[in-house]
Design brief:
alpha+beta, 29% helix, five-stranded antiparallel beta sheet, 24% strand
Amino acid sequence: MIREMIAPRTNWREDCEAIGFSYHSIDGTYWDETRCYRFTADEIDTLEAATAELHARCLDAVEHIVTRSRFDALAIPPAWRDRVARSWRAKELSLFGRFDFAYDGNGSPKLLEYNADTPTALLEASVAQWRWLEQKIRPADPDADQFNSLHEKLIASWRAFAVTWSAGTPVHFTCVADSVEDCGNLDYLRDVATQGGVETRFIAIEDVGWDATAGVFVDNENEEIRVLCKLYPWEWLAAEKFGPQLLTSSLRVIEPAWKMLLSNKGLLPILWELFPDHPNLLAAYFDSGRIAGDYVEKPLLSREGANVIIHQGGTTIAADGEYGDEGRIYQAYAPVPRFGDDYVTIGAWIIGDEPAGIGLREDTSPITRNTSRFVPHYFT
């Protein structure tokens, strides 16, 4: 794993915008092709194997949580526990997730957290960095490749989903209307769904309605919403005014309710309890007193690094945010690889049940935040 400093394509902005990647420069610099990461094929194999292994272990953890009714440890609201359990037992379909790893090419990738409910950085990991590979790297190195089958696997997953639904059932896609990044990711999801044979609609989360007379969710055209694909966290959905209706409604949601258990940092101590000394896991507990040495403090429901606190070498690094009241976990500190002045984490994607690629985020802080930059990769 080597970082290379390279010249960006002269037309990179136009190329990004041509594929709907309009948020390439959000907060200043987001997409950054002044550098890239080169891996060996063996390193990619290691990342792929770790992704498949952790996906399987996470499913084991969900079964354990549901069977043992350990919802309280994850602060799942009592009213939602049966709904989550029913979702799991019904094997409601999951589309995707993203594991975040600390890995520098040596040893085993270490799981930092699992973005299992509303993972973003999808368009850039899929189409954007593939186009970069073809336009920038392959002209000089035709044998260069990329760990990236996201696009094809997403289309195949939507095609499989369509088979399980009644013919002609549209899928409504929703997020916060004024989030440029979420809308960009959602538009991409709609595109691959359309290519998979699914009819799609967009509805802002603010416009999702409940028809009390018919007992169904409706859009702003008063059309029933039967399937909802969301980039909006489950805990936020549950807190909406229509939250109670989600408990009994026949609405099918992507990601399903059981993913509440995997998008919660409480998963990390349970994984360590079930699989102690697993090579891809870091020691993690609900009690800070059980970790000897440096550690990281994480709220159960934190996103984009919010309220994460690193206690390392007698110093503390903390990120601002509004999380933490729901509870915290404590995870052994694993140094995030540093190249020059930047720290890098690897996001490893799972589509359905299959590893599908990686995307890398750089930051001047060891805490990956919403302002972190996306950097492309290839392997030889």
